[in-house]
Specification:
Structural class: alpha/beta
Helix content: 25-40%
Oligomer: single chain
């Protein structure tokens, strides 16, 4: 708005027929700003200097937070379009939101252009633009909740639950009866492996191609636990869906309910001096039973607090990337993918197990592979391009062959008859592209994706290993049962022995209730497990 002013010899207040929204400014012809204030009926008012003759410019300058909101909206649009490009099959979750976003963009564009071209009244703009902003914000919140369960998390933190306290079984108070002749244990965490990558007839979900045929043969020839008649694997409960949390679930039967100041999942447990000091793990029990605990991985064991977990719960001897350099297995500068590849890991494992087998103590040898880690895995020289077109699929084929070959090697060793082998994924894969429209680690009602598990050379036989509801937390007591250990009450921490006929917590309460309660705030967890 431009005002042509011819002022008297004294200053005077000028009223402008515009409601004085925050953001209005008045300038004279020289660019000097006039002080604004509320006039009668809260309209714009400014003081005209004495003897002023000239133009006064009234402008509305949008606040900075409008620009921020527009940038957030732009980033969200780019994100939605990116998801649409990489995942064209997800019609309901991708295409419809994109169409809605396009409509919002058109409406927003018409409002902005209409305001500046003056074919839309400013009053209409001021009413409609905040409404559109609220809609934009609501869509963003909806998408964050759909993909990351944001609202469920905040809801859980506002709700106090006694579920963990009421269902927790302290392993220190449970009678564990080891067999007269104890058994060795080889425990293999296979990074991100899930039954989804099997063929459909075996329980997979992607297509009829089997990306892990050798690992499929292992579960067919041995024992695995499934949520259907095939090999659908274990569900991942809240706070168990990344590597160190997956280890806590399977070795301790507990979630890793630790969050940083930004309310994000904490993968920096190395910053904390004590790692869940109130928890008793598989390593603790076997160490007390006289086992020699050993852990091997190809990455830096310090990442995610894994070193503290293993040292404080079982006094494991550790061999990782740094140890391999120190022992001269690899050069000081060697580094590929996350450290050194699985082909080297298996060779080092053979050497160490052979050495451990000559000791008077029984051994618990645990290892963690890495080649199948997100985003696309590591295509090592052993990978075969003829296996399949997808690079990540070739990595799975290669990982399957290497693992199978390692198990076959174990079977040829003198110590094998007295050794149980447990193979499990640490969590479901986080590779979004490869798994198409299958949501990662989100289980509501019917569980679809499941973590691979296989129990080899176990003297115990399961009462029922099919059509079970269970999570990776149940692997903890099940592993002990695989060593022929009798567990009083069949439960440890929040896990249930799957070899028994005891109902798991998932079977007793259902997935929805179980996961909601685990997600909720727990005084017991904080005071007895996290900070006892």
């Amino acid at each position: 708005m431009i005002l042509e002013c011819h002022g008297p010899e004294y200053p005077m207040d000028i009223l402008v027929p515009k409601y004085n929204y925050k953001g209005y400014h008045a300038y004279d012809e020289n660019g000097n700003e006039c002080e604004l204030k509320d006039g009668i009926f809260d309209v714009v008012s400014f003081k005209l200097p004495a003897n002023y003759n000239g133009k006064i410019y009234i402008k509305y300058i949008e606040p900075l937070y409008w620009r921020v909101a527009e940038m957030v909206s732009l980033v969200y649009i780019i994100y939605i379009l990116f998801r649409f490009i990489i995942n064209r099959r997800d019609v309901i979750h991708i295409i419809l939101p994109v169409l809605f976003i396009i409509v919002l963009m058109i409406c927003t564009g018409v409002l902005i252009i209409g305001k500046y071209r003056k074919f839309i009244p400013v009053k209409v703009f001021r009413i409609c633009f905040p409404v559109l902003s609220v809609v934009w914000f609501s869509v963003i919140i909806w998408n964050l909740d759909r993909n990351y369960d944001m609202l469920s998390y905040f809801k859980g933190q506002m709700k106090k639950s006694e579920f963990i306290e009421n269902n927790y079984v302290d392993p220190r108070k449970v009678k564990l009866e080891f067999p007269e002749k104890k058994r060795n244990l080889i425990y293999i965490f296979v990074e991100s492996v899930e039954t989804t990558v099997m063929d459909i007839d075996s329980g997979g979900l992607l297509n009829e191609h089997n990306y892990i045929p050798e690992m499929t043969k292992l579960v067919e020839d041995n024992i695995d636990f499934s949520q259907n008649n095939d090999h659908s694997g274990a569900a991942v409960s809240p706070a168990s869906g990344w590597t160190v949390a997956g280890m806590v679930a399977e070795l301790g039967g507990m979630p890793l309910k630790m969050y940083d100041e930004s309310n994000k999942i904490d993968n920096s447990m190395e910053d904390y001096k004590y790692f869940l000091p109130g928890m008793t793990t598989l390593g603790d029990i076997l160490y007390d039973a006289g086992y020699n605990n050993y852990f091997m991985c190809g990455s830096d064991i310090g990442f995610g607090g894994r070193r503290n977990l293993l040292l404080q719960h079982g006094n494991y001897e550790i061999f990782d990337l740094m140890a391999a350099r120190k022992e001269g297995k690899i050069s000081q500068t060697y580094f590929t993918f996350w450290g050194f590849e699985d082909s080297k890991l298996y060779e080092y494992a053979k050497e160490k197990i052979t050495m451990l087998s000559t000791d008077d103590k029984l051994f618990n040898f645990t290892m963690l592979t890495v080649d199948t880690h997100m985003p696309e895995g590591y295509n090592c020289p052993l990978c075969n391009e003829n296996d399949c077109e997808e690079p990540y699929g070739r990595v799975w084929h290669c990982a399957s062959r290497q693992l199978y070959s390692f198990v076959e090697w174990c079977k040829q060793q003198e110590w094998y008859d007295n050794t149980t082998i447990v193979i499990c994924g640490d969590h479901c894969s986080m590779n979004v592209d490869f798994y198409k429209n299958l949501t990662n680690d989100k289980y509501r009602g019917q569980v679809k994706r499941g973590v691979y598990n296989c129990f080899i050379n176990c003297p115990s036989k399961p009462v029922n290993n099919k059509n079970r509801k269970f999570t990776t937390m149940d692997i903890y007591p099940t592993t002990l049962a695989g060593l022929n250990v009798k567990i009083e009450g069949e439960r440890l921490s929040l896990g249930t022995n799957l070899f028994s006929d005891k109902e798991t917590l998932a079977e007793e309460y259902g997935y929805d209730t179980l996961f909601e309660e685990i997600d909720s705030y727990s005084d017991f967890y904080n005071e007895e497990i996290l900070y006892p």
